Amino acid sequence: MSISDDFTQAEFAAKHISSKSPIRPTVAIVLGSGLGGFADEMTDAVRISYNDIPHFARSTAVGHAGQLVMGNIGDCPVVVMQGRVHLYEGYPVRSVVFPMRVFSRMGVHAAILTNAAGGINKEYGQGRLVAISDHINLQGQNPLVGQEDPNLGLRFIDMSEAYSRDYRRMAIDAGKRLGIPVGEGVYAAMLGPSYETPAEIRFLRTIGADLVGMSTVPEVIAARQMGMKVLAISCVTNMAAGTTDAPINHEEVLEIGKKISGQFKALLREVVPLIAKDVAQG
Ligand code: HPA
Q1: Catalytic residues
Q2: For atom 7 of ligand 1, which residue has the closest CA?
Q3: How would you write the pLDDT of the chain (282 residues) with one tens digit per residue?
Q4: Ligand 1: distance of its center to the CA of 189 in Å?
Q5: CB-based contact 10:98 (threshold 8 Å)
């Protein structure tokens, strides 16, 4: 697949998806590890397995259902990814961001990305929700590497407000209304899949990271290239390595995700209409 195929293939996949549902979403939501339950809130939902979408990669991570859900949240049409693919699964970065390319072709202008993350900032505790204010990309990869394709956007894109300040404020204010504390912090993206060493966590804290995870950043870069506005919310499923004596395990990450899913769903229910309204106002 040459890089210029991305656009054509995304258009093909977008047409395929749009043929399955009359919903015409302007907002996309990506649900991370253990956070997939939000999709159950949708009405008029049509579920499409990633296996049935042309050129989509299959998620192999436990806790990721691997299906796209088209439907409504309240009266907002949305497309939801129940599970994403990660670089650590061995997929090329272009496959990781392909869904974002497809959403852009479908007319989506805003993305809400969620993930499970380790808490580096000692003020966080397990289960804390944090709106990502900025990131540090330590994955050694970037989805814009390669032949430039003007159909997708510019090559040298500005990243000074990759995470919309307005959307962040909406999430924090919505949290206040609901009595759900929502923090703000910098997300460091690691390749994984091994969790970090305590020394790596000390390094990440020193360079200004509050959170650490293995996803989201490639999708944000691609979304920004295509002009989408981004809200990203981490759920602190565990304190990062060395911060406590406890070892980190994936089951716990999934468990905490499930435990706070009520809060998480409430927050998304509140924020989605605000973001949909922002998109409608252009
Ligand atoms: N490190 C990296 N990714 C993660 C973590 C972590 O501690 N927790 C959940 N995802």
Answers
A1: 33, 64, 86, 88-89, 116, 214-215, 238, 250
A2: 118
A3: 445 589 999 999 999 999 999 999 999 999 987 788 888 889 999 999 999 999 998 767 666 678 999 999 999 999 999 989 999 999 999 999 999 999 999 999 999 999 999 999 999 999 999 999 999 999 999 999 998 888 899 999 999 999 999 999 999 999 999 999 999 999 999 999 999 999 999 999 999 999 999 999 999 999 999 999 999 999 999 999 998 888 888 888 788 878 888 999 999 999 999 999 999 998
A4: 9
A5: yes
Q: Which of 135, 195, 211, 256 to mutate to test the pocket of ligand 1 (most atoms within 8 A of CB)?
A: 195
Identify the architecture of domain 3-280 in CATH.
3-Layer(aba) Sandwich (3.40)
- Domain boundaries defined on the chain: 3-280
Phi, psi at residue 172, to the nearest 5°?
-65, -45
